[in-house]
Specification:
Layout: E1 2-10, H1 14-29, E2 33-36, E3 43-50, H2 55-73, E4 79-84, H3 85-97, E5 103-104, H4 111-117, H5 128-133, E6 145-149, E7 151-152, H6 163-167, E8 171-172, H7 175-187, E9 192-196, H8 205-208, H9 213-221, E10 228-234, H10 242-249, E11 253-259, H11 266-271, H12 278-291, E12 296-303, H13 310-323, E13 327-332, H14 340-344, H15 351-374, E14 380-389, E15 392-396, E16 408-411, E17 422-430, E18 435-438
Parallel strand pairs: 1-2, 1-3, 3-4, 4-5, 6-9, 9-10, 10-11, 11-12, 12-13, 16-18
Antiparallel strand pairs: 7-8, 14-15, 14-17, 15-16, 17-18
Helix pairs in contact: 9-10, 13-15
Length: about 450
């Protein structure tokens, strides 16, 4: 064990990652050495930031906790703390079932951990002028991009979703605070910003009386040094169309929109409490593509929701086939206690049917993705280099968000490229998801 070292493990979404980064900065200021997602855990203290969104995420979080419990039993770990969504929702049950954890914290009280541990034994006094220059986060991503969380919580209350039960109502951050954070990160070399929120199209309603997402993104785009802005987790109901004008007119706002649609059957949309119809959805997609030419749309879909018939699913398949989303993820419904669907619907789609539908949907999307990527062969595209991996530099276009989207592979023996820098490359080939390119153009 390394004294005064804290190993941080973050589960789930990028919103959790931002929380971890802010807490790591505070521990860093208190003299601790913090390592995020260590390949070899060696700290005397471990902090696990959990996810509790769906059953598979909860299982992964619990298994990770149990792995560190074993380390503690073996004497390889002195203290173990758990925070985040899982412990926000199930703290009492976790305290009873895993007593080896020294303390559980929720989604919003994790700063108490800092008070409970206190300063490190070897804490050095940092000059106040230097401390003021430090950012409020320690980035765990490559230093050329960062996630910006603009709000917390959700007011939508979809029938299947436990997030409002975990995070509470929608709470926007003040615009000035967000813009200050962007300025701060730009000064540290960040060029690319992934704007995240559970439902970003609702941004500002709670504190300003109306949505201000378009204004926020416009002002972010005007900050010198911001090269790319990418938008995640929009909602189709009451979509602020003025945001499309910003995406079209601001060259550093990527032509990329992550909008979770979940389904297209009116039967399913109504049962899911999505407050949107098939016609509404089709009209919105048409409007988005018309007003932002060349946009790449990422969506998420669900199969196996209670009451989903084969007819509903076939309608979903037809929808995906016709709309040809550039990016798509999907998952099978899992019943989450406390949600409307868990309390009012019977989980009546057999697991094997759910899996079969999921497999068929993703197989269809694989064909679409291969076709979409093949259309880029021969084009010159701007990429940012994330890393060097084996024989390739690995980059992304504006249409690719980190970790979830296709990447661009450029032979490392052609030309020396720098991580975090932009290059124009020629796309030479493609496979089902990734692109291959040459920088010698």
């Amino acid at each position: 064990m390394k004294k005064n070292r804290i190993d941080f493990v973050t589960m789930g979404c990028s919103k959790n990652l931002v929380d971890s980064e802010k807490l790591i900065r505070k521990f860093d200021d208190e003299g601790y050495s913090c390592v995020h997602d260590p390949k070899r855990p060696q700290g005397e203290i471990a902090v696990i930031n959990t996810c509790g969104f769906i059953e598979s995420a909860k299982e992964e979080s619990i298994n990770t906790i149990l792995e560190f419990v074993e380390r503690k039993k073996e004497g390889k770990l002195h203290k173990l703390y758990v925070m985040g969504c899982l412990s926000q929702r199930y703290r009492k049950e976790l305290e009873e079932s895993i007593p080896e954890v020294d303390k559980f914290y929720g989604k919003f009280d994790y700063n108490q951990l800092l008070k409970d541990l206190g300063p490190a034994d070897n804490k050095m006094v940092v000059d106040s002028s230097i401390a003021k220059q430090r950012s409020t986060r320690v980035l765990t991503t490559p230093h050329h991009y960062a996630y910006i969380k603009i709000a917390e919580g959700c007011d939508r209350h979809c029938a299947y979703c436990a997030i409002p039960l975990i995070t509470g109502p929608h709470r926007s951050r003040p615009m000035e605070e967000i813009l200050d954070e962007v300025h701060e990160l730009v000064s540290e070399g960040v060029k690319e910003f992934q704007v995240i929120e559970q439902e970003l199209t609702y941004y500002g309603v709670d504190i300003y009386g109306h949505t201000r997402i378009a204004e926020l993104i416009s002002q972010m785009a005007d900050i010198k040094g911001v090269e790319w802005i990418r938008l995640h987790y929009a909602y189709p109901n009451q979509f602020p169309l003025e945001l499309l004008d910003v995406m079209r007119e601001k060259p550093n706002v990527c032509k990329y929109l992550d909008i979770a649609l979940q389904h297209i059957s009116d039967n399913m949309l109504k049962r899911m409490h999505r407050h949107v119809t098939k016609e509404d959805t089709l009209n919105l997609i048409h409007t988005i593509r018309e007003r932002v030419p060349g946009i790449n749309i990422r969506t998420t879909l669900m199969v196996g929701f209670p009451g989903e018939t084969e007819e509903d699913f076939n309608e979903l398949m037809d929808f995906v086939s016709e709309e040809r989303f550039e990016r798509m993820g999907a998952f099978a419904y899992s019943e989450e206690e406390g949600t409307y669907s868990a309390e009012h619907y019977k989980d009546d789609v057999p697991p094997e049917v759910k899996q079969d539908r999921l497999d068929r949907l993703m197989a269809l999307q694989e064909e679409i993705s291969a076709s979409v990527e093949a259309e880029k062969v021969g084009k010159i595209m701007k990429v940012i280099i994330d890393r060097k991996e084996g024989e390739y530099y690995v980059g992304r276009t504006e249409f690719c968000s980190p970790e979830v989207d296709p990447e661009v592979l450029i032979p490392a023996n052609e030309k020396r490229l720098r991580t975090g820098c932009f290059y124009n490359v020629r796309i030479t080939d493609s496979d089902d998801y990734d692109l291959f390119a040459t920088a010698n153009i």
